[in-house]
Amino acid sequence: MPALLRFAPSPNGYLHLGHALSALLTWDAAATLGGTALLRIEDIDINRCKPEFIRAIFEDLAWLGLAWPEPVLHQSERFQLYADAANRLRDMDLLYPCFCSRADIAAQSTGKDPDGAPLYPGTCRHLSNAERIAGLERGDPVQFRLDMTKATARTGLLTYTIVGPTILDRPQIRYARPERWGDVVLQRKDVPTSYHLSVVVDDAAQGITHVTRGKDLEAATDVHVLLQMLLEMPTMRYHFHRLVKDDTGGKLSKSKGSPSLRDLRAQGWTPADIRRRIGF
Ligand code: GLU
Questions:
Q1: What domains does the chain contain, in order, with CATH numbers?
Q2: I need a labelling partner for 10 at 20 to 30 A (CA). Which of 57, 163, 191, 211 fits?
Q3: What is the best residue among 195, 200, 227, 251 to mutate for testing ligand 1's pocket, by most ligand atoms within 8 Å of CB?
Q4: Per-residue pLDDT tens digits for 214-256
Q5: Ligand 1 atom, smallest distance to 22 CA
Q6: Centre of ligand 1 from the C-alpha of residue 9, in Å
Q7: Model's pTM, two decimal places?
């Protein structure tokens, strides 16, 4: 089976040096494996994703010298497929409606998820059916969460395969611990999906064989492996790459004014300068 990889940015801002490293590593890994790298636009966030950011992704990647097969998959065109996957989980009695606001969760939570966000305290898991129906009939804003305890009881111990530090290194088996995330949201209040659900549906639908992503998404992969098992979808090989730091050794971020690739291009940087800066 020829290797198929993907670079899947979310167009809610311009690409920065971290994206450049992720994209270049993905194309390099595809070439090393004799396979292909796809571009996928992860634009489920209908409020923050903008057409100008999508256009800029195409331009910036081409400027870096990368090419990809067409057509490019846009997640915003696939909401029905994600809703279908959620419905399969609903039929398995693994999803429940949650009416909590962010403030409710922050006030009641006693732990943190691997990203440092308040862990969902499970409030709505305990609602009666009558309370659920009343909330849905009133049209209260609702999101749907995975019942993590039931889901993990169903799958038992989960393992997946990682490769690294390079894509050609010997595969290693790793245990997934999705329970660290608590009852994750699989259908948000604004769209009938979430990052976790869409990424799992599309990696399977596109026949991705190797997922290359930054170490910041390493823990989230545990949720993806769980969903793949529940939805009877294949699990890929995972390669988690280093992250690019800013000049002070901190995380790149828009709020701290980290420059985008197009800012750097406007300042006269060349693709070779970008590669040097990110050590590629
Ligand atoms: N769309 C995600 C992001 O931009 C990454 C996709 C993935 O590797 O799962 O952070």
A1: 1-76+244-280 (3.40.50.620), 78-202 (3.90.800.10)
A2: 163
A3: 195
A4: 999 999 999 999 999 999 999 999 999 999 998 888 878 767 7
A5: 8
A6: 5
A7: 0.96
